[in-house]
């Protein structure tokens, strides 16, 4: 408005004359009066019409105007207003303050309250309307669900436990491998109990300013008490709950202050408040002992990798979101995915849907699941890699050696598939799948696995009369297994049930400062000799198997060079002396889907067979 008013005040009024025209009219007597406003002259003619002109530096102008009888007046020079004076004097300071506030907000992530929200909690609250997850969405962790079901009952009816003198755990620590569903289980607890759910990550407490983490812990618990009964979920608590005093130069003071405040808050509120702290981590060994004592995290709930039944349930949960063909069987897929976590199985279903979409299918069939499983376990195919024929033949003999030794040793996992198509970083892969979940291994199984690892190099020596670098990872794994047998697992008769080796405690866990040897040099020499004996025995065993089954290895190599990939049925044909059956034709590609108004035709049945060991 100020600019508009200033602009309007300075608008020229009437005609704009040149200075020479103004002089001529003045001498002719047509100008009656003039108002001098700086370099501008605003005047009026004898006929009453206004005009405006701009004068150069003319010292005789006023005398000429008076000479020709012109009424002369002048406007006083306008001074800046008080507001403009204040703005011009304080504007640089205000600009500096604004820039400072902007950068402080950026450093703090633009949280609530801007630059003055250092101590505010960043926990996000979910209520029953924004948290639809329930126990029905969590599968494969039945024991963990039973452990935490008491929390749901307490949050729904606290008096049921309190009238008998019972006290619900104030904190529950969920421990498990990555991807097993710890965060999902915590959200399901809040969804079942229909209470507010505060979610925060351990790294959100730690900032560059001293005292911010402790202030955020205080603010978080204050908010939780106002919304009690409620749940506080701290994900990846090892970011802030690491053991105090760790490291060579002392601990991080800011992180330790945050941990101290959390210890006080967890043990400071009453059990009747109804605030339950749930934390998740996959590194419980680095947590501070004071955090794990009763009264803080009273209960540790282990969320393990799912077994075969759990994997089937998890697959069924994720298959709800995908159109599945009638030939897909979750139990067969579960048997072929040992060691998969819940996140791995979700990725398997997603990859299968992507494979089906690339083939323009309407439904995801068993063949898509098989291809997705091969991609996840063995790596993506690199068909664009051009290998010389000599190297292809060498890779085929290498993988055939692995497969034949594994097939002839009874305690090894069955061979599911052999391929010489480069996958991931490997030029070829021999894929073995166990017939059932395994939780430990005995001595004979480990020894036979070492022999299988040597099968590839021995086949190269016997059939190609050469050695390549492709067996480097095989030797590394075999040596590591043999060393563990002697130094950790007590599986050596000459060395006995004793742990040998150096103290390998981590410096930054605060448990040790320097590594030291706890065995003598003579003992380590005996350990090396025992490791060498184990490796030599299994090398001889694998070589004997390969030299005895030359015909089978030649047939398998020929099949690999022709088809590039063979499955368990073709391997069984070769080992039985029969010619291997040809590979199954790929599933037919359906045309693109019609418009939504048309009814979709029934999906074709897949020709994929179940995995080995079913």
From TrEMBL:
> Boundaries of each AAA+ ATPase domain copy?
168-307
Where is it located?
Cell membrane; Membrane
**What Gene Ontology biological process does one annotation of this record name?**
protein catabolic process
Cofactor dependence: Zn(2+)
Q: Which sites bind ATP?
A: 176-183
One GO MF term on file is: ATP-dependent peptidase activity
Specify the superkingdom. Bacteria
Signal peptide residues are: none
The EC category is hydrolase
Q: How does it sit in the membrane?
A: Multi-pass membrane protein
| Regions that span the bilayer | 82-103
Bias type Pro residues, positions:
579-604
The cellular component terms of Gene Ontology attached to this UniProt record, alphabetical and capped at eight, are:
plasma membrane
Cofactor notes: Binds 1 zinc ion per subunit.
- Name the NCBIfam families on file: FtsH_fam (TIGR01241)
The cross-references to HAMAP family, in alphabetical order and at most eight, read: FtsH
Protein name as annotated: ATP-dependent zinc metalloprotease FtsH
Species this protein is from: Ferrovum myxofaciens
């Amino acid at each position: 408005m100020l600019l508009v008013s200033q602009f309007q005040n300075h608008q020229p009024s009437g005609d704009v004359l040149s200075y020479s025209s103004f002089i001529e009219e003045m001498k002719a007597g047509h100008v009656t009066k003039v108002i001098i406003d700086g370099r501008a002259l605003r005047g009026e003619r004898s006929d009453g019409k206004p005009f405006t002109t701009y004068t150069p530096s003319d010292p005789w102008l006023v005398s000429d105007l008076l000479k020709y009888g012109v009424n002369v007046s002048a406007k006083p020079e306008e001074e800046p207003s008080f507001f403009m004076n204040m703005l011009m004097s304080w504007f640089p300071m205000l600009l500096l303050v604004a820039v400072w506030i902007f950068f402080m907000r950026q450093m703090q992530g633009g949280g609530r309250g801007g630059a003055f929200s250092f101590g505010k909690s960043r926990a996000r609250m979910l209520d029953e309307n924004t948290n639809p997850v329930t126990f029905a969405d969590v599968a494969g962790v039945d024991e963990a669900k039973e452990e935490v079901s008491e929390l749901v009952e307490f949050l729904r009816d606290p008096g049921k436990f309190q009238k008998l003198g019972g006290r619900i755990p104030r904190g529950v620590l969920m421990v498990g491998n990555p991807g097993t569903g710890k965060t999902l289980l915590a959200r399901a607890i809040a969804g079942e109990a229909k209470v507010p759910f505060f979610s925060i990550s351990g790294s959100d407490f730690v900032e560059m300013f001293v005292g911010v983490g402790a202030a955020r812990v205080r603010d978080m618990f204050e908010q939780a008490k106002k919304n009690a009964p409620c749940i506080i979920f701290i994900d990846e608590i090892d970011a802030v709950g690491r053991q105090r005093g760790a490291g060579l130069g002392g601990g991080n003071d800011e992180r330790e202050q945050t941990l101290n405040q959390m210890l006080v808050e967890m043990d400071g509120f009453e059990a009747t408040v109804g605030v339950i702290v749930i934390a998740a981590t996959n590194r419980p060994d680095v947590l501070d002992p004071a955090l794990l004592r009763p009264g803080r995290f009273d209960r540790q709930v282990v969320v393990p990798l799912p077994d075969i039944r759990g994997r089937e349930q998890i697959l069924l949960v994720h298959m709800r979101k995908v159109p599945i063909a009638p030939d897909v069987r979750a139990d067969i897929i579960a048997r072929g995915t040992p060691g998969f976590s819940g996140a791995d199985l979700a990725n398997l279903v997603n990859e299968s849907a992507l494979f089906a979409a690339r083939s323009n299918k309407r439904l995801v069939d068993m063949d898509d699941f098989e291809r997705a499983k091969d991609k996840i376990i063995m790596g993506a195919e690199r068909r664009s890699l051009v290998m010389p024929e000599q190297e292809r033949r060498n890779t085929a003999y290498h993988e055939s050696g692995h497969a034949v030794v594994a097939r002839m040793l009874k305690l090894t996992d069955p061979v599911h598939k052999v391929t010489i198509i480069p996958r991931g970083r490997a030029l070829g892969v021999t894929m073995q799948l166990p017939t059932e979940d395994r939780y430990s291994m005995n001595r004979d199984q480990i020894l036979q696995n070492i022999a299988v690892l040597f099968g590839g190099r021995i086949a190269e020596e016997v059939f190609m009369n050469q050695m390549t670098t492709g067996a480097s990872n095989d030797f590394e794994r075999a040596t590591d297994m043999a060393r563990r047998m002697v130094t950790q697992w007590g599986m050596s008769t000459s060395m006995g049930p004793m742990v040998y080796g150096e103290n390998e405690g981590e410096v930054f866990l605060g448990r040790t400062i320097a590594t030291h040897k706890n065995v003598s040099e003579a003992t380590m020499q005996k350990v090396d000799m025992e490791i060498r004996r184990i490796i030599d025995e299994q090398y001889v065993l694998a070589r004997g198997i390969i030299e005895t089954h030359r015909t089978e290895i030649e047939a398998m190599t020929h099949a690999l060079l022709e088809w590039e990939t063979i499955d368990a049925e073709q391997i069984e044909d070769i080992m039985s002396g029969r010619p291997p059956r040809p590979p199954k034709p790929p599933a037919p590609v359906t045309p693109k889907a019609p418009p939504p108004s048309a009814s979709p035709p029934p999906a074709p049945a897949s020709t994929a067979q179940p995995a080995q060991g079913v």
